[in-house]
């Protein structure tokens, strides 16, 4: 959804306001959204809008909220794609899971693994292994990557 100028938003509002009363009903707004490919139920729209009709100022705020929601959605999609790429770096055999050997191998290649007894990678996986199967699936990997660093990690 590309930005629309305030003048164009005002024109759109005027076209939607068929009875020239300065308000656009949520059914009219719902019809417009449907025409431009944004699928939602009337009930969802009314809940999002918070009322049965919008004046011109509310219509502009609604549009701005839609733009912000779309940008947030696109940002979330980008993060998801980046996390999937990172996950695939560790999932060496492509089975959809990161096991201890894969984790240790990748960390070693990156110079981030000190030769130890191997228990450390099991412990690392164990912290985020929600279903205790000994490996990380993509959801568990995403959860691990979304944990903010602790203050001791920043020192």
Structure keywords:
mainly alpha; 59% helix
Give an account of the 3D structure.
With 155 residues, the protein is mainly alpha-helical. It has 7 helices and 2 strands, in the order H-E-H-H-E-H-H-H-H. The radius of gyration is 25 Å and the shape is elongated.
Question: What's a concise summary of this model?
Answer:
The protein is mostly helical.
Layout: helices, strands, pairs:
Blueprint: H1 6-16, E1 24-25, H2 26-35, H3 42-49, E2 53-54, H4 56-90, H5 100-109, H6 119-128, H7 138-145
Antiparallel strand pairs: 1-2
Helix pairs in contact: 1-4, 4-7
What percentage of residues falls in helices of 4 or more residues?
A: 55-70%
**Most strands sheet:** 2 strands, antiparallel
Order of helices and strands: HEHHEHHHH
By oligomeric state, this entry counts as single chain
Poorly predicted runs are 151-155
Q: Describe the global form.
A: elongated
**Beta strand %:** under 5%
């Amino acid at each position: 959804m590309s930005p629309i100028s305030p003048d164009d938003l005002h024109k759109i509002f005027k076209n939607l306001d068929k009875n020239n009363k300065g308000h656009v009903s949520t059914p009219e707004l719902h019809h417009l959204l449907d025409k431009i490919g944004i699928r939602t139920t009337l009930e969802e729209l009314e809940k999002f809008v918070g009322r049965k009709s919008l004046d011109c100022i509310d219509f502009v705020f609604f549009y701005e909220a839609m733009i912000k929601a779309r940008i947030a959605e696109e940002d979330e999609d980008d993060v998801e794609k980046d996390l999937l790429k990172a996950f695939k770096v560790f999932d060496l055999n492509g089975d959809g899971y990161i096991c201890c050997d894969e984790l240790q191998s990748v960390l070693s290649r990156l110079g981030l693994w000190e030769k130890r007894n191997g228990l450390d990678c099991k412990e690392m996986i164990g912290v985020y292994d929600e279903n205790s199967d000994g490996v990380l699936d993509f959801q568990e990997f995403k959860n691990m990557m979304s944990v903010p660093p602790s203050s001791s990690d920043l020192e």
